[in-house]
Amino acid sequence: MNQPPFIAVEGPIGAGKTTLSTMLSQELGLPILKEIVEENPFLGKFYENIDEWSFQLEMFFLCNRYKQLEDTGIQYIANNQPVISDYHIYKNMIFAQRTLKGVKREKYRQIYHLLTDDLPKPDVIVYIRASLDTLLRRIAKRQRSFEQGMDTAYLEQLILDYDEAMAAIAEREPDTTIITIDGDTIDFVENREQFDEIATRLKELIHERIQHT
């Protein structure tokens, strides 16, 4: 039996996840789960010294996302309510596998699976794929102070990590629908027609699943 979808918007830093998920939430009338970013007290220190502060940073994100999905996400899903999120819980592993090493990486992996294996996972992913130039331009535009000194090599590697992660999800979760958006050519903020195309695709998916519930 199909269930109303749990939709996640994903992509590397600066892709526009929160902007698109907020626009879709308003257009589709869906509740939205937004991750905590700027409230993370380790962000500034992380970008100054990734090796020193990555474990603290990733644990803060993991615990907050876990708590949000446990408290809010499950309630919507249990009530057959479609919901949209500006993250997929698996993003924790995308970042941790890049920033953590050795014993810390293994400890984190164990904690991640302990917390998340029984959480609901999105069955629709809107993946915003964008080049380094596009991401850097959007990061500069939003003017978050802690992001301005970001290592471009780190961001470039993150683009590749996201591509690999989406391919892995598609392989191990064949029932998950992944809608890939070319962030270099599609401007869902300035081009209403392009945004409407994304929203229409999701409306169709929601309708199909509700019809078969």
UniProtKB/TrEMBL annotation:
InterPro entries: DCK/DGK (IPR002624), Deoxyribonucleoside_kinase (IPR050566), DNK_dom (IPR031314), P-loop_NTPase (IPR027417)
Assigned keywords, A-Z: Kinase, Transferase
Pfam families (alphabetical): dNK
Entry annotated with the keyword Kinase: yes
Listed EC numbers: 2.7.1.113
One annotated GO molecular function: deoxyguanosine kinase activity
Domain annotation Deoxynucleoside kinase: ranges: 7-207
Top EC class of this enzyme: transferase
Highest taxon listed in the record's lineage: Bacteria
Protein's name in the database: Deoxyguanosine kinase
